[in-house]
Design brief:
The protein has helices at about 10-30, 50-65, 75-105, 110-115, 120-125, 140-155, 160-180, 185-190, 195-210, 220-235, 240-245, 250-270, 280-285, 290-305, 315-355, 355-360. By secondary structure, it is mostly helical.
Length: about 375
């Protein structure tokens, strides 16, 4: 009988490639400020589906890691400690650094990142408010924090009742979204009833039921994911602008379906051991959360140098992009090696020292099965 792998290498590769796609998309948005030349195609706007992949992957990891965790205060405390240690240290450090540079420069440098009305405390604590987070990409982390709060509630239930609890949660999201006149009326309410929550819940269910997919065809799921994705592109005339004009539920539904099929197919492929992923890409998957956080800051810094030297043609665009991505990857690796990995290991040692039994359920470096952004974040 096949054994379920303890690390899903395909998800690791998906995470780092997804974070690179997000960084590339944001570089493309900056290009528009410096002239008509575009190295990054506008079609990359459709790559936002990787955010949906991050949410589903995050749910999958939580469902897999905590499938049999007993309902107890100690188990929930351990879960909360691991989640806080995974999300906040790198995020707070980068956000504080951005604020420090912005303040020291008299609100000139990195002003487009900070915004006109920054709210430092809510940004640092990831509390939804009318003001956007100082790191704009942290909008996904607002969702992640809410996901984890909801999942912690599921952990208060006995394992056999958690599927029913997840179904009730999903029904509440659908009902709340349907009953609201404007889902964006209040930031906290919009967060609670966001369709993105359904993606996380789907991922959790997938984590619970992974043993059931051993006989299913991963190639079929992967082909279906591509077809749904291209179908969504065709529906909007291959125009990312028109895509954003779709009703939110339809847009997230299309992206969520293709993301779910993609994640499902990759998991099934790993279970069946259909391929071997490049070890370096697998290892780089651990950097994806830091890359997701740091890339906008690096791009902003590089572009301050690039702007006065911008010339017609794509040569300078390519150089700025390569420099931005290379430096972002290098800093991400540094964050993982010097900050994230030591903190994760420290938390693991503390948990094992205090709760040996519970540690056996959820102990892993970087979250065991594939660590991160969000595990997920991205995300």
């Amino acid at each position: 009988m096949q054994t379920v792998p303890q690390r899903y290498d395909s998800l690791q590769v998906l995470r780092i490639l997804g974070a690179i796609l997000v960084a590339t998309y944001h570089f493309g948005a900056i290009e528009l400020l410096y002239g008509p030349d575009r190295l990054v195609t506008p079609l990359l706007g459709y790559a936002s589906v990787v955010i949906d992949c991050f949410f589903i992957t995050s749910g999958f990891l939580m469902g897999t890691l905590y499938k049999t965790t007993p309902a107890s205060v100690a188990a929930i405390a351990e879960f909360a400690l691991r989640r806080v240690a995974r999300i906040y240290p790198a995020y707070i450090l980068i956000t504080a650094a951005v604020c420090a540079v912005w303040t020291a420069s008299g609100h000139r440098l990195l002003a487009h990142l900070v915004g006109s009305d920054p709210h430092l405390i809510s940004s640092l604590l990831l509390i939804p408010t009318a003001s956007r987070p100082i790191l704009e990409v942290a909008w996904t982390l607002l969702h992640e924090v809410y996901f984890y709060l909801g999942f912690a509630v599921l952990l208060t239930l006995k394992p056999r009742w958690r599927a029913a609890g997840a179904a009730l949660w999903a029904a509440g999201v659908v009902a709340g979204y349907s009953l609201l006149t404007s889902p964006q009326a209040h930031p906290g309410t919009a967060l609670v009833v966001s369709p993105y929550t359904l993606e996380f819940i789907l991922g959790v269910c997938l984590g619970w039921w992974t043993p059931l997919i051993r006989r299913h065809a991963p190639r079929t799921a992967l082909v279906a994911a591509v077809l749904v994705w291209f179908g969504g592109m065709a529906l909007t005339g291959f125009s990312p602008e028109r895509r954003m004009q779709l009703p939110e539920a339809l847009r997230i539904g299309l992206d969520g379906l293709s993301a779910f099929l993609l994640v499902y197919g990759l998991i099934a492929a790993d279970v069946k051991r259909l391929w071997t992923c490049p070890p370096r890409l697998v290892a780089a998957g651990d950097w994806s959360y830091a890359l997701y956080l740091v890339h906008t800051v690096v791009i902003a810094g590089i572009c301050m140098v690039w702007r006065p030297m911008s010339r017609p043609g794509l040569a300078d665009n390519a150089l700025a992009y390569a420099t931005s991505l290379g430096l972002s990857l290098a800093l991400s690796a540094l964050f993982w090696i010097r900050l994230e990995r030591p903190i994760t290991r420290l938390v693991g040692r503390l948990v094992r020292a205090r709760r040996p039994r519970l540690s056996a359920v959820a102990a892993t470096p970087g979250d065991g099965i594939a660590g991160g952004p969000a595990s997920g974040a991205l995300a």
